[in-house]
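Dear colleagues,

As part of the handover before I leave the project, I'm documenting each prediction I ran so the next person doesn't have to rerun anything. This entry is a single chain, and its sequence is reproduced below.
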Amino acid sequence: RSYQSLYNAMYCAIIFDLTVGIFIVLLGWIVVYRLSRHMIIPIQTMTDVAERISNLQFDTQIDVTSEDELGQLGCSINKMSQQLEKNMTQLQADIDSRKRLVRNLSHEIKSPIAVIMGYSDRLKSVIEKRPEKALEYCEIISNESNRVDVLVKEMLELSKMEQNATDMHKEKIDIQ
């Protein structure tokens, strides 16, 4: 009889231990699952946003819900996205401005060249018949050539300034 009661007590202890063990494992799994989801979801979101940023799509921001390292990383990614968007907008404006400048300069250079070509062609036919008219044409050609030269020098100066190749020399002067 004592053997049977000992066997029943042991059987109850084993069942109890198994039940409690399964309960603890399930509870531990739930806790680990929730904690890992709490950490993985923000990382996945940040990965998705970083991928969109790498594709130059700055429309998505990370919702920062914590102040821990993940929250700080989310804030940094948001700041980086905003700064990149601002820089891309500025770059696009600079490109548009440069295109406009090239278009305008091309037009400004094309006009004097057309005048030079026209007068040089006329000069060939007039040079023997009317030398005074030929001198007038030479003067016009010279003026237009100088105008093209000035425009080209301005373009070169602008190019140097954009490359910061221009050296500034500071010197003190007496105002009086």
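Residues 44 and 50 are 10 Å apart (CA to CA). The mean pLDDT is 85.

All the best with the project,
I.
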